[in-house]
Specification:
With about 250 residues, this protein is an alpha/beta fold. The protein has one domain (about 5-245): Aldolase class I (TIM Barrel, Alpha-Beta Barrel). It has helices at about 15-25, 45-50, 80-85, 95-100, 105-115, 130-135, 140-150, 155-160, 180-195, 200-205, 215-220, 240-245, and strands at about 5-10, 35-40, 60, 85-90, 120-125, 160-165, 205-210, 230. Strands 1-2-3-4-5-6-7-8 form an 8-stranded parallel barrel, surrounded by 5 helices. Helix 7 runs parallel beside helix 9. The protein is globular, with a radius of gyration of 17 Å. The structure holds 2-phosphoglycolic acid. The site of 2-phosphoglycolic acid has 13 residues, from strand 8. 2-phosphoglycolic acid binds next to strand 8.
Length: about 250
């Protein structure tokens, strides 16, 4: 069975006070017995979060990482640095990174390898724009993004990757993919993976992202190929995020 995973991507939001609040609330929170929960705060809060979350189920994730271990890369952070702060997961290929920082499939692949080599579980984000969906290119775009990375990995590396399907038109817009739309694409991703290895595909954890909230999470998470959520806006309100976690049981 695939363990559900709910990840809260704070993006460039949050504060030291929010870190403390999550630590407090999750210390006493009632959660499904089998559930992984991850918070991805901005880098400056990682150390405080590590301490505040110590007695909770919350694990830490990074929103990006540099492909190199160290070197002359002003402003960047490497996987082994993140590992020192207890980071267990890292996003690669988030659509904001692809669009605003021009990270292409090759850059995404390099970052994913860097995560694996630092023993950090990569969450590979993929998704089509509205234009691409309207042109009937959703599966083509999504499978190109998945395939570029997956086809270049060794089988044991593939087994360590989590994939998040985030339609770009649903991110931060309040417009969610219907459970059926999300399920259709996510079943397609799993089927693609089955082309490499059926067992691997059966164990692959797939997250849905894009305006997931306390009101729509249960229905999305009930779909057979949706194993969890990558939550942006609603992960900044502790009660909403907790409610999403509780609906993942
Ligand atoms: P959203 O963001 O939940 O605010 O749409 C999701 C994401 O970008 O990961």
């Amino acid at each position: 069975m695939r363990t559900p995973l709910i990840a809260g991507n704070w993006k460039m939001n949050g504060s030291a006070a929010l870190v403390e609040e999550f630590g407090r609330v999750f210390t006493d929170a009632r959660l499904p017995a089998s559930l992984d929960v991850v918070i991805l705060p901005p880098f400056p809060y990682l150390d405080a979060a590590r301490h505040a979350f110590a007695d909770t189920v919350l694990r830490l994730g990074a929103q990006t990482l540099n492909p190199l271990h160290s070197g002359a890369r002003t402003g960047e952070v490497s996987g082994n640095m993140l590992k020192e702060f207890g980071v267990a997961y890292a996003l690669v290929g988030h659509s904001e990174r692809r669009q605003l920082y021009r990270e292409d499939d090759e850059a995404v692949h390099d970052r994913l390898l860097a995560a694996l080599s630092a023993d950090i579980t990569p969450i590979l984000c993929v998704g089509e724009t509205l234009e691409e969906r309207d042109a009937g290119k959703t599966m083509e775009v999504v499978l190109r993004q998945v395939g570029y990375v997956m086809a270049r990995l060794e089988p044991d590396q593939r087994a360590r990757v989590i994939i998040a399907y985030e339609p770009v038109w649903a991110i931060g817009t309040g417009r969610t993919a219907t459970p059926r739309q999300a399920q259709e694409v996510m079943a397609g991703i799993r089927e693609y993976q089955a082309g490499f290895d059926r067992e691997l595909a059966a164990g692959l954890r797939l997250l849905y992202g894009g305006s997931m909230n306390a009101g729509n999470a249960a229905e999305l998470l009930a779909q057979p190929d949706i194993d969890g959520g990558l939550v942006g806006g609603a992960s900044l309100k502790v009660d909403d995020f907790l409610a999403i976690c509780q609906s993942a049981g």
